[in-house]
Design brief:
Layout: H1 2-12, H2 30-40, E1 54-62, H3 71-74, H4 81-98, H5 107-120, H6 129-132, E2 133-136, E3 138-139, E4 141-143, E5 146-148, E6 166-172, E7 182-188, E8 195-202, E9 221-227, E10 231-239, E11 247-255, H7 256-260, H8 267-277, H9 286-305, E12 314-315, H10 322-329
Parallel strand pairs: 1-7, 3-12
Antiparallel strand pairs: 1-8, 2-6, 4-5, 6-7, 8-9, 9-10, 10-11
Helix pairs in contact: 1-9, 4-5, 4-9, 5-9
């Protein structure tokens, strides 16, 4: 947080805030921007977008690639999944999911609501960290049929490296809308599948009438696939055809490419175009950056002070360390790839 604040002060000494365009390419992705339309242009969604109906939110950014020759950078103090992905990209996604309706679509009004989310992020205490954050590092494994060496075998990586190639963390947004609703963010390299998605998990019905009719009734979900297979999927229960009353999960699918007959534009191209137009809607404000660091720095400090003896703790080509699954299962929840 101190270095981020120092950089912001330095920039402010040269430029006005409205002349600074801090790029985060995730904010240029079509499906992240589509979140604003999904929420604020559709009355079937916004009334449900609160603690009364939503159980929790998951944001995943998983990669099948390993460090790919960037070992010396990734193993530096600036590297690691928490710093590289969670603190920046995924918290930006969280802010779009959690923000209040802006009074207009002007850049200043949208950024005002995002800043409120960042300022409402609960700053964890050191004693909380083992329960809300998981550090992972990949061992040797197989991805798409090809062997992958362990992270510690990469050039420029220390034999006893503690760098997180995987990070998962529970965030809480302490506002009236989101009180008691956890946000689970995770990102990792050398994982089983490449995907970036937001999953809104809804609470179960107050009374399940069909408990004896189904083997595995899943919670209703809205799945926003940011990449690949861009689109929005609504998962709910439907009746299985035939006699009797059995239920099964069904999907209503909005496929971006199929619907619009066009591939999503590159995030950087979108942002550079917006910068040239002088529109700051899709760019970070200094307050967002400093508040994001406030929320994750206690975890980074704890990890620095408490080296893990079990690293590496997940095989390349899997979904990360079992500790991340246990963090979810503690309250009867599961990552979407597991349930």
């Amino acid at each position: 947080p101190a270095s981020a604040a120092h950089l912001n002060r330095t920039l402010a000494g040269v430029f006005d805030e409205d002349s600074i365009y801090r790029i985060d390419h995730y904010l240029g992705k079509e499906l992240v921007q589509n979140m604003l339309v999904l929420r604020f242009a559709n009355t079937i969604f916004e009334p449900l977008w609160n603690r009364d109906y939503i159980d929790h939110v998951q944001v995943t950014a998983s990669e099948t690639v390993a460090v790919e020759g960037r070992g010396s950078y990734y193993d530096s103090p600036a590297g690691g999944a928490m710093r590289d992905m969670v603190q920046s990209h995924l918290l930006q996604v969280l802010s779009v999911v959690a923000m209040e309706p802006p009074v207009s679509m002007d850049a200043a009004d949208i950024r005002t609501e995002k800043i409120k989310v960042f300022k409402a992020l609960r700053v964890p205490k050191a004693a909380d960290v083992p329960n809300i954050a998981v550090r992972g590092q990949y061992a040797a494994g197989t991805i798409n049929g090809k062997p992958v060496a362990a992270y510690r075998e990469s050039e420029g990586v220390a034999d006893d490296s503690q760098t997180d190639t995987y990070a998962a963390m529970q965030f809480n947004v302490d506002t009236w809308r989101w009180g008691g609703v956890p946000f689970f963010l995770r990102s990792g390299k050398a994982m089983a599948e490449k995907k970036t998605e937001i999953v809104i998990y809804f609470k179960p019905t107050p009374h399940c009438l069909f408990l004896d009719k189904t083997q595995d009734m899943k919670p209703n979900q809205i799945v926003i696939n940011i990449q690949p297979d861009e689109g929005i999927r609504i998962r709910f229960e439907g009746k299985v055809p035939g006699s009797g009353l059995k239920t099964k999960e069904v999907v209503m699918d909005f496929d971006y490419v199929d619907q619009w007959k066009i591939d999503p534009p590159d995030g950087y191209a979108t942002l550079l175009n917006e910068a040239m137009k002088g529109d700051q809607t899709l760019f970070k404000h200094r307050d967002e950056i400093e508040s994001a660091w406030d929320a994750v720095q206690p975890v980074l400090d704890y990890w620095k002070d408490h080296p893990q003896s079990d690293l590496p703790n997940y095989a390349a080509g899997t979904w990360g360390p079992s500790a991340a699954d246990l963090m979810m299962q503690r309250d009867g929840r599961y990552w979407r790839n597991n349930k």
